[in-house]
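User: quick one, sequence for these tokens?
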């Protein structure tokens, strides 16, 4: 079974972002402050979650993942004190979807400012993901806490990357003695011609590999796949 980070597909459009996030538990001269910018379905959330789940046995750094919108919600719900203590003390914090702070205009920006200030005092690493660059936000209420964040772009998978992605999904969903085999042209169709996002491609591949009721090991042609997904 593949580990979470093994599922990631590196391309020229996401390589720098992947490498910086994956290597964040290694020693570096100063705290990492990264603002990860990319369109929806570019793999930002997948990358951050996978990096949290994949433990670095050579590092003592703890890694925490939280959606930005969850923080104001937690404050209003008066969740346990340890929730906020973790945010300010974990050596690496991934804050996903910066837009979430703006969903609560009263608490969101204030909480972000206080949290980033606390982490800066302790020299901790922070990565924030967003679908827009910092220049497109009104940051007047953030107290300059994002001024020294480094923007790194992450692009959606290109056609070749999607082919590799589908091949990995087929491997994950194959059950010996039950699953079919996807012909190379069928994989090419799903990746290049289906015209869907990675999320929908994952669902389509899962459907083909797990709901098939024919002979185990049978090769599914492009024509069969087109009809099955129509």
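Assistant:
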């Amino acid at each position: 079974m593949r580990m979470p980070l093994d599922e990631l597909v590196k391309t020229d459009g996401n390589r720098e972002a992947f490498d910086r996030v994956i290597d964040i538990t290694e020693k570096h001269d100063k705290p990492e402050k990264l603002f990860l910018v990319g369109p929806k379905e570019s793999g930002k959330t997948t990358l951050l979650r996978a990096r949290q789940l994949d433990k670095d046995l050579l590092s003592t750094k703890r890694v925490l993942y939280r959606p930005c919108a969850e923080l104001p919600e937690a404050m209003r719900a008066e969740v346990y004190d340890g929730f906020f203590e973790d945010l300010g003390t974990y050596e690496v914090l991934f804050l996903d979807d910066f837009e979430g702070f703006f969903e609560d205009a009263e608490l969101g920006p204030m909480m972000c400012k206080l949290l980033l200030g606390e982490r800066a005092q302790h020299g901790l690493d922070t990565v924030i993901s967003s679908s827009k660059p910092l220049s497109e936000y009104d940051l007047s209420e953030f107290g300059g806490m994002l001024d020294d964040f480094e923007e790194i772009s992450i692009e959606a998978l290109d056609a070749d990357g999607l082919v590799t992605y589908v091949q990995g999904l087929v491997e994950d969903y194959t059950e010996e003695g039950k699953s079919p085999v996807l012909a190379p042209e069928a994989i090419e169709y799903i990746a290049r011609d289906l015209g869907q996002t990675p999320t929908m491609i994952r669902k389509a591949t899962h459907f083909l590999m797990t709901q098939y009721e024919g002979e185990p090991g049978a090769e599914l042609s492009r024509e069969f796949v087109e009809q099955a997904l129509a």
